[in-house]
From TrEMBL:
Region (Disordered): 331-370, 471-516
Its biological purpose: Scaffold protein component of the PI(3,5)P2 regulatory complex which regulates both the synthesis and turnover of phosphatidylinositol 3,5-bisphosphate (PtdIns(3,5)P2). Pentamerizes into a star-shaped structure and nucleates the assembly of the complex. The pentamer binds a single copy each of PIKFYVE and FIG4 and coordinates both PIKfyve kinase activity and FIG4 phosphatase activity, being required to maintain normal levels of phosphatidylinositol 3-phosphate (PtdIns(3)P) and phosphatidylinositol 5-phosphate (PtdIns(5)P).
Xref: InterPro entries: ARM-like (IPR011989), ARM-type_fold (IPR016024), Vac14 (IPR026825), VAC14_Fig4p-bd (IPR021841)
Location, primary (coarse class): membrane
Name of the protein this chain belongs to: Protein VAC14 homolog
Amino acid sequence: MNPEKDFAPLTPNIVRALNDKLYEKRKVAALEIEKLVREFVAQNNTVQIKHVIQTLSQEFALSQHPHSRKGGLIGLAACSIALGKDSGLYLKELIEPVLTCFNDADSRLRYYACEALYNIVKVARGAVLPHFNVLFDGLSKLAADPDPNVKSGSELLDRLLKDIVTESNKFDLVGFIPLLRERIYSNNQYARQFIISWILVLESVPDINLLDYLPEILDGLFQILGDNGKEIRKMCEVVLGEFLKEIKKNPSSVKFAEMANILVIHCQTTDDLIQLTAMCWMREFIQLAGRVMLPYSSGILTAVLPCLAYDDRKKSIKEVANVCNQSLMKLVTPEDDEPDEPRPGQRQAETNPDDALPKQEGTASGGPDVSCDSSFSCGITVFTAASTERAPVTLHLDGIVQVLNCHLSDTAIGMMTRIAVLKWLYHLYIKTPRKMFRHTDSLFPILLQTLSDESDEVILKDLEVLAEIASSPAGQTDDPGPLDGPDLRTSHSELQVPTPGRAGLLNTSGTKGLECSPSTPTMNSYFYKFMINLLKRFSSERKLLEVRGPFIIRQLCLLLNAENIFHSMADILLREEDLKFASTMVHALNTILLTSTELFQLRNQLKDLKTLESQNLFCCLYRSWCHNPVTTVSLCFLTQNYRHAYDLIQKFGDLEVTVDFLAEVDKLVQLIECPIFTYLRLQLLDVKNNPYLIKALYGLLMLLPQSSAFQLLSHRLQCVPNPELLQTEDSLKAAPKSQKADSPSIDYAELLQHFEKVQNKHLEVRHQRSGRGDHLDRRVVL
């Protein structure tokens, strides 16, 4: 510094003392400056006051010499003390050079700067509030200062500033929020602690409504919640807890929609505390905001559904996620469906003004721009709402269905999540069927694939969804599409429906489309699609048929109409080109028909064949059952067509008797001994009126080799009274009284010809395979 330079009105002694390296001398100079400024204040000499402040600022506080800077800082503090209540007129000139020294490399100088600013603020009090942002900015940097003395000094200044803000009603919150939003993303733990402490203070001031600006800082708060420091996490928990209490008290003033995506992001984090806290907030948002949250359903489900599969280590998160899921589901009502929807067959895309899954343009809190495309391939997914609190909420299903489809397709997803997805689909089909049927063709393949799931509960929920699709009136189309052309064994995506003329081959009258039975008018166009594709699934995945087939079909018979299921499957199998599969499937269906309690009513219907519907059902089943000779006989036993059963067994002599064939006869003998055929065994007591029943059983006995089944049936027939009455001469002369008369509407001769035709096809196929060398001849020489 030039000693000859004029620093008037500062005297040379003052200048010299300000530049001295000793603190005591600088302090003496400060007292002289204070005295000098007091005189100027008394004289109201503002020019000289400004000149003194400018000199101390430019020539000392901003000097290159460290001792001069220290002298300038203490001199500015002395000016502020001298000015007293008038210091507010010169605060900008007083504060700016001091704040510049906050960045000085010398820690002692930073401390003196902190001390000087403390004195300036202490004198000015509320007058410093217009300069709050620059003070806060400077303090946030000192909060992370490595020097403990500087940090201690900044804490004193921080407490003073908090006291001023708390007691004032002129705090400019609007101007402060942008700075707070910026500083809240600091990674320094001391800076984070400083930020949190200020938010707590502002939240405690009655005249400051920080809740209005919560969307600006919520993302940053959740990031601070993930800090490694236990104390900081605890402070942040307290802040978030206070905000949540305030939200519950004043839900009408909360900007739920602006914070929904922030919660969606943090509900997907790997940090347990952040995820649990965000999930608790989400639960409260859904319950408090209600339908305002519906436009964000896609994102909420993306975050919530995986949590439902958590184990006991994350039990708390799982429980809260379950409440979120249930609460969100309740928001969907029948009013969300539309009365006038395009037909499902039109495959019209759902209209959404925001394209359902747009990329987020950046979080309102100033955080990182987190976005994800509709493939859901990224870890965190964000969705933009199509409506706000003030606009009517319209439920758009495109994004929701895509999320559900994505989770159901993911084999790594846990069982409880898959069950929740299926419950969602079922709920949507119940509440908004017209909208949902736009998405049915895209959901259908994955729903069929889910039938191979390891969990019975998942399969059961899956069947409930498929049954609802197959029976909902909203799924009916005017034009079911032709069945001709490509055969039934096409890809899953090609869902075919038979034409009305092809739906029933049994001369049924009055049938419409797929409604093969007048008793079940609720089956829609998707019912036959379902049956076709279910059989495709069984054909391509034989293990599924063996392990889960009976369970699936029995449950479908409970959920839908058993007659329609058997009628449609028989109709489809009648045109099945894979004869081996047709035989296996018919055997499986027959076993289910004869043994399942779920089919008690259908068995009773078939026992008597009193109605035209039951006769048509018998004929339909018979034609397909012909793929398996033994099952055809068992069907005749069930329907008490004993004479026709006897005629069929007579034809067995022309068939190729294999080990598999004899095994099926063995199983039939075992079935005859079961409760299901109690009525048949009792009819053996009436030999005179049931000669063909006894003949048919003897025919089976003659087919069997000497085995346990042979002994079982032989012992049963030995119990038949008066065996001499088996002579058919007399029995043919008079019609049996208790023997059920053949129905005039059933052409048994034609049925027998159909049986021979089908068996000839099976024989040709076996011979072709044998000629290629890929068929093991399992014929048994009797």
